[in-house]
Amino acid sequence: MRCARFMTSCLLVIRKVDTHTLLGLLFAIPRCLGVKNAMAKNDLQGSLDLLVLKTLSQRTKLHGYGIVQHIQRASHELLEVEEGSIYPALHRMEQSGWIASEWGMTETNRKAKYYRLTRAGQKQLQAAKQNFEQLVKGIRSILRYA
Amino acid sequence: MSLIRRILNSQRRKKLDVEIQAELQSHIEMAVEDGVRRGMSEQEARREAILRFGNTGTVHESVADEDMFLSLNSICSDVVYAFRQLRRTPAFSLPAVLTLAIGIGASTAVFSLVQAFLLRPLPYPDASRLVVIWEQLRVLGIDRFPAPVGDFVDYKNENRVFDDMGAVEDAHFVLRAGDYPVRIFAVRTTANIFPMMGLRPALGRTFSASENQPGHENVVVLSNVIWQERFGSDHTILGKDIVLDGKNYQVVGVLAHNARFSLGYPQTPDIWVPLPLVADPARNTGQLQMVARLRAGVLLDQAQLQMDILAARLEREYHIQMGPHGEDPGYGVRLVPLHQELSGNLREPLLLMLGAAALIFLIACVNIANLMLSHGVSREGEFAIRISLGAGRVRLVRLVVTEAIVIAFAGMTLGTGIAWAASALLVNLSPYEMARFLAVSLDAKVLGYAAGLGLIAMMLFGFMPGLLIVRRARSVAGRTGHQVLSERRSRSLRSILVVVETALSVTLLLGAGMLIHSFLRLQYVPLGFEPHGILTAQMNLPPSYSTGTAQSQFYERVLEQVRSIAAVKDVAATTLLPASDRLLHDPFSIEGRAWQPFGAARVPQFANHQAVSPDYFRVMGIAVQQGRVFSAQDKDGSQPVVMVNETLVRGFWPGERPIGKHLVLGAPRPGIPWQTVVGVVADVRSGGATAETLPEIYTPMTQTPSAAMALVLDTKVNDPARVANDLRDAVRAIDHGIPLERMATYEELLGTQFAARRYQMFLLAAFAGLALLLAAVGLYGVVSYAVTQRKGEIGLRMALGASLQDVTAMVLKQAFLLAGSGLGIGMAMSLLTRQILANEIFGIQFLDVPVYLGVILLVPTVALAAAAFPARRAASIDPMQTLRME
């Protein structure tokens, strides 16, 4: 299993960035040894990503503070995120190309960084939605028969 | 893309920090504004906003991490750490880097030769389509025979497979320029050879096709070298006449200095003259070497097929026969790609060298893996601590791997440097003719080869021990103390590695030993004559000596003159120098017998023919077995006589008395009298130590005069070369215009024929020595490490009454056990790989006993040397101190 993952990660690296093949190969081994942790983290991140993408899909652009406010309002204060933790997620999604950012002015004339959904982000939103529904379905069925 | 952006981001960390700071700050400010709007005081609102936001420092860091290439920073720190670690332990890192550098350097240097000689295309336009065309006489086993002019003209006009076809013929001229005459090497050539081989003139022009027509051939193109050396780089030389063999030739061009030409000639031509293309009906003028460029898209096999058909037609049309009685000679033509023609005899030795170098590289890798293991084991404590402090396995593997990378990189860099120096040396020392016109350089492929080796090395000695160390370190992480260090498994693994490298070096040693042994035997193969103390010099009479009588008279006068030199004991003349000049294959006929290819004992009915002066046999120390030698009475006009060798007698007159028999060179012809055998001499290895002895026919030079002859002088002085000046004066006294060429002692002449073998032997011996050295270092490492590990045990033994001898014996026993196992395995391996060497080695035996014995003695000696120091250290352990330590 691990070995197969190592192979695929090697292949991906080779296909993507030729110049970094060597580096990728060298560090693929430790990566694949530690891959379990990352998986677990991914699931949580996945839902935060979904919330952010969903929020941005309803507005043209929004800054981090606005996104947090919107999530809290929309979830009727049920879902509360520590506000700062949204920023690493936003920056990661920006690096992945799902969202784009630009500096702008708020209504109160304050400088803020605004985020908007990109085309890739829209696709990602669809995929994430489906994933989430699968997850929910799975959890439900476990709850029902447990 | 995002990877690149992240890397770029890491370059501008400062700017990024400011931006993140601004974004987070604006979040908090907005939260404060909202709070104030809801009626809180600003102070209260700010407190709540910060509380809800979480730790700004942590958020800032993790945002920055997302923006930067994740592991780049920690990779850098790993590399820096690895450097520091390696610098702190020079006892480990220095031998590791040096060993690897030697391994990579040797392999890469040899590969650069392979690349230059075998892989890289020749420096000619469309070099891959150039082929050399030889005629062949298959029945005789002659597959490289030059063509007569007539054949060339027919092939050129009638083939449909070549773009172009040219021919060259070597020739010699005596050039008169300046004070003294010199004999120079010339090539008669068709005009199209110049463009075909990319030979451009620096001055003037090359030949035009019309100059290959008879009557127009008195033009000459000079090589750049002779233009500089003999004509002082005279820029006005075009249109002037130079004198070759007493005839005037007009200079029309000078070749560029980088014009390189080789078709397997021993030297590059000094001058070029047009080849007159006159087809003679008898087809026996000209010894042309044909070169052609395949038409684009035509395969070699197709071309060969068409040329076969043409050759069959020529054979019918011109009744190409062999021997006096019209037997089928198996006439044909053979197409050989030019590159193969030039590098053919290099392929096997070079690949053998590459194999040997690869073994060195492997041994080096094994050595380093070993070093890394011992090094790693001694760091187990460090790793255990790191693990208990929370370092992950990933992190530890990365640490070890980074160290391997740093070592591999350092070794690779140093190794490339060694290869650069060594490849130049190897080329300069090499006797291969190709080396003179091919540039050996470290090009991309060679560097890639070095890098590839580095990568392999890294994989071999980095990952595997790395993983092993970490796995074990993990298992011991919970425990404490030093006892866990001396684990059986790592010790046995290291022992296996040492056995492997000893075995590899034993294989190399045996191979080199057999090569050296065969080389020595080759030099002591009795040649049938005594070369010691003989001086040789060659002469070639110009066409002014037009008659045979004039030629033989000249040489008789020279012999007389030379004999009067005080330091000369004896002197004779011959047309061929045995074991140095090429063998001739002249068919001969025996009176009353039909010609057939072979006589008794498969002795071929072809003879090496030599015209000699009567004293030749005495000077050369060739024993006369029957009859008499030539005398002054065997003159032109008296009864034609010959002497033959024993092989001829064995093949054609077994059990008969050969004296008085009659034979003649070539076919019996009217007007050519039979020659009477007057004497039989012992066999001489005329073709050199490795060639079969042919029948030999000697004729007196007075009856078969020749313009070109060599003198052999038996000298009274120790150093025959000291007679050289007297000899030159003696010849000058008779004719001032005859140059003496290639003056050399006979031993020097023989040396050149062994040059290629000596070169191979030198390289292989160097590799074997290197391998043994590396193996000894490895052995030393293991034994010395074991002594360190077992310090406590040894101390205890001594305290319990073990003597110094016991302890020393214990250490030595380990070394001998390891070396002995390697020796055994290596010998078994060498028996298996013997077949590879069989082609390279003259007279290989099933078991080369002296070599095997030598290696059997050598390896334990080296093992003893390697283990001596650790053994002394073991013996000097103070038991009391050890006991206190425990």
User: Roughly what is the average pLDDT of chain A, rounded to an integer?
Assistant: 69
Number of strands of chain B: 22
Q: Count of helices of chain B?
A: 26
Q: How would you sum up the major sheet of chain B?
A: 6 strands, mixed, barrel
Helix content of chain B: 40-55%
What level of helicity do the residues of chain A show?
A: 55-70%
Q: Widest sheet of chain A: strand order?
A: 1-3-2
Low-confidence region ranges of chain B: 477-486
Helix/strand-derived class of chain A? mainly alpha
* Chain pair sharing the greatest interface: A-B, 31 and 38 residues
List the helices and strands and how they pair.
The complex is a heterodimer of chains A (146) and B (886).
Chain A: H1 2-16, H2 21-33, H3 35-58, E1 62-63, H4 64-74, H5 86-96, E2 99-105, E3 111-117, H6 119-145
Antiparallel strand pairs in A: 1-3, 2-3
Helix pairs in contact in A: 1-2, 3-4, 3-5, 3-6
Chain B: H1 2-11, H2 13-37, H3 42-53, H4 56-67, H5 72-88, H6 90-119, E1 130-137, E2 142-145, H7 149-158, E3 162-176, E4 181-189, H8 193-196, E5 201-204, E6 219-222, H9 224-231, E7 241-244, E8 247-255, E9 271-274, E10 289-294, H10 300-318, E11 331-337, H11 338-343, H12 347-378, H13 380-388, H14 393-429, H15 444-476, H16 488-523, E12 534-540, H17 548-563, E13 568-574, E14 586-590, E15 606-612, H18 616-620, E16 624-627, E17 641-645, H19 646-652, E18 662-665, E19 675-681, E20 696-700, E21 708-715, H20 724-734, E22 741-745, H21 746-753, H22 755-789, H23 791-799, H24 804-838, H25 849-875, H26 879-885
Helix pairs in contact in B: 2-3, 2-4, 5-14, 6-12, 6-14, 6-15, 7-10, 12-15, 12-16, 12-22, 13-15, 14-15, 16-22, 16-24, 16-25, 17-20, 22-24, 22-25, 23-26, 24-25
